[in-house]
Design a protein that fits this description.
The chain is an all-alpha fold and 62 residues long. It contains 3 helices and no strands. Helix 2 packs antiparallel against helix 3.
């Protein structure tokens, strides 16, 4: 009988933890996004844009 009580307490703790994590611990959406400068740097590193184009676009971003 005591183990059944412990089971329900643990189940309640897990449910409260999951609900809290779902609603209150959402990461900032913008932290997962790349900045325009990071995207530009990746495109330059891949060779999709020339150095001149990279420098011109970088100047506009800053």
């Amino acid at each position: 009988m005591m183990f059944m009580g412990i089971f329900w307490i643990l189940l309640l703790v897990v449910v409260v933890f999951l609900i809290g994590k779902l609603f209150f611990n959402q990461p900032n959406q913008s932290s997962n996004r790349e900045t325009p400068l990071e995207i530009l740097q990746k495109e330059y590193a891949k060779g999709n844009i020339s150095e001149e184009d990279y420098l011109e676009r970088k100047k506009h971003l800053q």
